[in-house]
Amino acid sequence: MSTTPVEDAMRLKIAEALKPSTLEIHNDSAMHAHHKAMEGSISKETHFRLVITSEAFMSKVQPARHRMVYTLLREELEREGGIHALQLKTRTPEEEERQLAREKAEQGQPNADTGNR
Questions:
Q1: Looking at per-residue confidence, does 53 or 28 come out higher?
Q2: CB under 8 Å to 75, separation ≥6 — which residues?
Q3: What would the pLDDT profile of 32-49 be if each residue is shown by its tens digit?
Q4: CB of 52 closer than 8 Å to CB of 20
Q5: Residues 6+ apart with CB under 8 A from 12
Q6: What is the pLDDT of residue 37?
Q7: What is the C-alpha R_g of the chain?
Q8: Is 71 exposed, middle or buried (0-12, 13-18, 19+ CB in 10 A)?
């Protein structure tokens, strides 16, 4: 039996539906366990940050992308003791490439494509 059934279910549903090239799932529940809203909760899987890169997000604005993910995770969001907070970063592969190039430039690393700074 898994000790992270909510995370496992999220990973499976997102992987099957969105075929992401990047899928990061960060369980931040421990940082929020002391919040009043979490009193009495025995779940260790209530707060998550997700980073998802997928072609499925092409030509969709952020709210539409987020709705796609919320729809996939409806059961986990509605379940008693389920997901209380979900932070999403959704992007296309092209957006991810641009972000990585920007981060490299900010760190003064050469651009992989041109060799320039």
A1: 53
A2: 9, 82
A3: 554 444 445 555 678 899
A4: yes
A5: none
A6: 47
A7: 17
A8: exposed
* CA atoms of 90 and 51, how far apart (whole Å): 6
Residue 6: CB partners within 8 Å, gap ≥ 6?
43, 45, 76, 82, 83
Query: What is the Cα 10 distance to its own chain's centre?
Result: 10
Q: What is the pTM of this model?
A: 0.79
85 class by beta-carbon count within 10 Å (0-12 exposed, 13-18 middle, 19+ buried): middle
- pLDDT tens for each residue of 78-116: 987 778 889 999 999 999 999 999 999 999 866 555 555
Q: How far apart are CA 71 and CA 114, in angstroms?
A: 41
Instruction: Count the alpha carbons within 13 Å of 110 in the hemisphere toward its beta carbon.
Output: 5
**44 in Cβ contact with 83 (< 8 Å):** no
Identify the pLDDT of residue 80. 79
Measure the CA–CA gap between 54 and 90, rounded to whole angstroms: 8
